[in-house]
Amino acid sequence: MDLTKPYPIATPETAPFWEGLRNEQVLLQRCDDCGTWIFYPRSNCPNCLSTRLNWHQVSGEGTLYTFTVTRQATAPHFVDEVPQLIAMIDLNEGVRLTSTLVAQETDDLKVGAKVTPVFDHVSADVTLLRYRLA
Ligand SMILES: [Zn+2]
Q: What fold does the segment set 59-134 form as a domain?
């Protein structure tokens, strides 16, 4: 079995997001027509269907919406990461994303806690957006 981790592959819509992470910047799309912040990256605004979307650097900071501690690997590739702290983060701009938390202790993790980005350079080409308590 190939246990090479499945890292993200950039598409034309997502490439600026991944390039931003490599430069330790969080970039989000925002609709020029209605102002809606957008995540995940896409070609059309989910609110008004406009194609006039542009990238903007944001802090990446947000709030812990929910999390879980996985004590069994969610896939064979992640057996070396157990326990894995999978989280949903509400960014300050109002979009929600799924990530993992960098934490030694789970006792301090509380829904609603402020979180800040961690840029995890997993290879020369791929940087993952993870989170830790602010
Ligand atoms: Zn729009």
A: OB fold (Dihydrolipoamide Acetyltransferase, E2P) (2.40.50)
Taking only Cα atoms into account, the Rg of the chain, rounded to an integer number of angstroms, comes to: 16
pTM summary value: 0.92
CA distances from 40 to 27, 32, 78, 81 (A): 11, 16, 23, 25
Domain ranges (residues) in the chain: 10-58, 59-134
34: CA distance to ligand 1 center in Å?
Answer: 4
Residues 78-102: tens digit of each pLDDT: 898 899 999 999 999 999 999 999 9
Distance 45 CA to ligand 1 centre (A): 5
